[in-house]
Amino acid sequence: MQVTIEMDNLQKIIEATTNTIITETLNETISSIVKSYIKDNYKDIIEEAVNKAIEESIHDYIENTEIYVGNGSFGEEPIITTPRKYINTKINEIFEKEKVTVKKSCSYGSSLTEEISFKEYLDREYDINKTIQQYMDSFGRAFKNELNSYLKKNYDANLRNILCDQIVDLLMQDGKFKSICRGIDDLK
What's the whole-model pTM score? Predict the structure, then answer.
């Protein structure tokens, strides 16, 4: 039996495959080295530039974007203003009137508006005493549990030592225990 292999294109195939593998490997290696270098050396600069761009974009939106306030119902025209001017107007109204208008849900699914004092609003929405009380209760429970655990552990250990000492003292007063101890010493 005789096998004949034609190798006319074998060298070209090997060269093409080798070139492809080397090119892909070099591209991946160089890419990972460049990414690593950029990450190590320019990460802070890139983060700062991105943060600055986002900050400028938000600032530009707040200062220059026109918003329409009001829906034009009841014959009134919507007000065209910027977010900054609108926020400042609302804050000034709150401090001038010392009242804030809040919406609360109605049982029919609609919402009613109510005007309350700013202090009452803060007390209702952000009850500091309630928050502090919850924290103190949580802290008290944790402290009590930790203290009880510590006392139980130490009490159990001390009681065990005292009982062991008492039992050993009782046994030492008995003559049989002394004779057993001497017998053990004699066996050694």
Answer: 0.37
